[in-house]
Amino acid sequence: MLETLKPQPADALLALIKLHNADPRPTKIDLGVGVYRTGAGDTPVFGAIKAAERILLDTQDSKAYLGPEGDMGFVHALIPYVFGAAFDRSRVEGMQAPGGTGAVRLAVEVAARAGAKRILMGTPSWPNHAQIVAAVGLELKTFKHMTDDGTADLEALRAALADAAPGDIVLLHGCCHNPTGVDYTPAQWDEIAPMLAASGVLPLIDLAYQGLGDGMEADTYGLRQVLAAVPEALVAYSCDKNFGLYRDRVGAFYAVTDNAEALAHAMANGATIARAGWSMPPDHGAAAVRLILGDTALTAQWLHELTAMRGRMAQVRERLAAAQQIGPINMAPLGSQKGLFSMLPLSGEQIMALRERHGIYMAGSGRVNIAGLTTGNIEAFLAALKDVTE
Ligand code: LMR
After folding, report:
1. Structural fold of domain 65-294
2. 384 annotated active-site
3. Of 149, 228, 341, 365, which residue is 20 to 30 A from 80 by alpha carbon distance?
4. Which tens digit of pLDDT belongs to each residue from 256-307?
5. Closest ligand 1 atom to the C-alpha of 340?
């Protein structure tokens, strides 16, 4: 029977990790998968996580099953950070998920069980978004996320919403848009929130990079505006980036609704979906996050480390923007874009030339992880970009 299976292309983004690892050139630069790197090019474990892991090692007395909802102490500890200290706790409940991917999957499946048939999504988007929508069997309707001048295209979203039917899902990136780095401005979110409310759609906000843009509070501006305007929304959250826990797969799925019964049903459905998928989420990373958020000193240490990450990315963006123009590429917008990613308008040939001639690895879309750039390699990167575009 297995011979009937069709070959599948390797996941392009994950394949890039292997290609980069196999390149023997010491000057190679990895701008592929979205992990933070220090100025020395490393992706270290946060000091706050190491400290929490030591506490876990000493105090954790059982690894017995927790249940499909995972570590609810972790899920609840995040609520003030995500939704705000003053948020009405009776409106929100959540469950742990295996990373941001697991959280998006839970959100889309719960919405599908609630009758959603279609998702509206700005493109380009994170490749997994479309894959998850297809796997759950919903129709995908796309609109343009970014205008040609490198800002968010509010008119495209407005047109998509005008055409939406109540019960459609609208998937929005909370901050640090992957792959463009182009976020809606606070003024745009002020317009988006009532537009969502008026259209009767179910907003699904993917918040995978809180703290990597302008700060933990500032990065929730859009999410909180939306939640204040609509009766119901879903949130997919990831700690993979802001706690550096990538491979530990630490995420959470939240439902927000004014209807207490609907909230309980959303969680009950989430639990049965989890049970049939992964049964229970991995515990270790979430337990470490719970310990950090329950300890003032560890929280301060974690926030300090996160601030340093943000500062380094701001420096890289400043240098990229200062290049102004490279061939046909206007570099200036990279300075105001947010988070790990920006997208360069490069052809497939130019991306291959960067890889072959210069050992520079980036996604086929032209998405670059700017954290892969350091004071040691950024000038070489700019020179290579000039080489392939001029
Ligand atoms: C990325 O977009 O680089 C990451 O989120 C990795 C992934 O899971 O696709």
Report:
1. Aspartate Aminotransferase; domain 2 (3.40.640)
2. no
3. 341
4. 999 999 999 999 999 999 999 999 999 999 999 999 999 999 999 999 999 9
5. 3
Could you tell me the residue ranges of all domains in the chain?
Answer: 2-45+297-389, 65-294
Residues with CB under 6 A from ligand 1: 13, 33-34, 101, 126, 128, 178
Q: How far is the CA of 34 from the centre of ligand 1 (A)?
A: 5
Q: Are 252 and 76 spatial neighbours (Cβ–Cβ below 8 Å)?
A: no
Task: Give mean pLDDT, residues 83-88.
Answer: 97
Cα–Cα distance between 334 and 370 in angstroms, integer?
A: 10
pTM exceeding 0.70: yes
Which entry of 153, 206, 240, 248 is annotated as an active-site residue?
A: 206
Q: What pLDDT digit, counting tens, does each position of 176-206 carry?
A: 999 999 999 999 999 999 999 999 999 999 9
Q: Give 205-244 pLDDT, tens digit per residue.
A: 999 999 999 999 999 999 999 999 999 999 999 999 999 9
Which residue's CA is minimally distant from atom 1 of ligand 1? 34
* Domain range 2-45+297-389, CATH class: alpha beta
Ligand 1 midpoint to CA 199 (Å): 31
Q: Which residues pair with 210 in a beta bridge?
A: none
Catalytic residue among 116, 193, 229, 241: 241
